[in-house]
Amino acid sequence: MEKEDLGIDALLNLHFTGRVVRKDLTKRLKEGANVPVYVLEYLLGMYCAVEDEGVIQEGLKTVKQILSDNYVRPDEAEKVKSKIKEIGSYKIIDKVTVKLNEKRDIYEAILSNLGVKGLAVSSDIVKRYENFWWAESGAF
Of 50, 57, 54, 132, which Cα lies nearest the Cα of 95? Predict the structure, then answer.
């Protein structure tokens, strides 16, 4: 099949891989999950930006599993902190704000849902994601 024969959805998925999100899927998952829409849309873009319904269903299962395993709900913060302490490291999804602590001359992060403040962040990380910090959190 040539590009001219593809529908608009297929062309968008072809040229904007991982950035196309079906709003009906966002709405469907939003009703059952208490997470920000941008988190859902990011994950749906990663796992469901295709036209194959079977792949979409598998992607939805993956998104639900990732949210279940990694999204920090404020009411479960202590449970997640305990997991991190016991395991040593644990991948989480949380809102991160980074600010410069002028007195200590270091960048510090706040993990909103986890309720953790003052985590040291290297200058390299801040530089690597500079556009993200400015655009998303307004803090830098």
Answer: 132
Are the beta carbons of 69 and 42 closer than 8 angstroms? no
Side chain identity at 59, as an amino acid letter?
G
Q: Please report the pLDDT score of residue 3 as a whole number.
A: 52
Q: What is the mean pLDDT of residues 83-110?
A: 93
Helix axes 37-47, 53-70, angle to 10 degrees: 130
H/E stretch holding 109 reads: strand 106-111
Q: What is the pLDDT of residue 138?
A: 44
Residue 10 has pLDDT above 80, yes or no: no
First vs last Cα of the chain: how many Å apart? Answer: 48
* Secondary structure (DSSP) of 63-108: HHHHHHHHB--GGGHHHHHHHHHHHS----B--EEEEEETTTTEEE
Q: Which amino acid, one-letter code, is at 45?
A: G
Element counts in the chain: helices (H) and strands (E): 7, 3
Structure tokens at 109: 């992060």
